[in-house]
């Protein structure tokens, strides 16, 4: 599903990721931990092509990432962020639907799928509410629905619970786990070790120089 070999990325002469090898298989549910500055968020930005230049080999579904067009990446990969990244001037429905419209999907399909996802994430009745009228947990649920609209094979979540209390954090990861059980590959970047230990998952720690796969009893960043 995701294969990385000898990945290196530097900014202004400072190495952020060095000689990284990583394999994530179809159907994996992965927590990626690591200290600030270890390159976790940079890795996710490479996978979504927000960052376009790197050295090394990155393949998704056995395709060279460099050769995959950005709109195809947006269909294949759904993204979730700590800060929700919702458009303040758009309603819940509009924020979700926009993800499908920008990649050229039909309006009826986008409409039907948006309403279905709103129901799935527990926000039915709030279709026309603006983000500033939602709690943090509700905003992140909108972000999850938006990430799912294009029926991605992969979900990348960058600190998706960072702005949530422990109860809402658990519910968001629980929702992502449900999606994983339906076949979606999920990679979650987090600093929350206790949360990571609460779910059946593959645990990885990213350090400069590589990624280590851990057993839960030995989890230490």
UniProtKB/TrEMBL annotation:
One of its GO terms (cellular component) is plasma membrane. Keywords: ATP-binding, Nucleotide-binding, Transport. SMART domains: AAA. SUPFAM superfamilies: P-loop containing nucleoside triphosphate hydrolases (SSF52540). One of its GO terms (molecular function) is ATP hydrolysis activity. Residues 2-221 form the ABC transporter domain. Gene3D superfamilies: P-loop containing nucleotide triphosphate hydrolases (3.40.50.300). It comes from the Bacteria. It holds the Pfam family ABC_tran. Belongs to the ABC transporter superfamily. PANTHER family: CELL DIVISION ATP-BINDING PROTEIN FTSE (PTHR24220:SF470), IMPORT ATP-BINDING PROTEIN (PTHR24220). This is ABC transporter ATP-binding protein. It comes from Cytobacillus dafuensis.
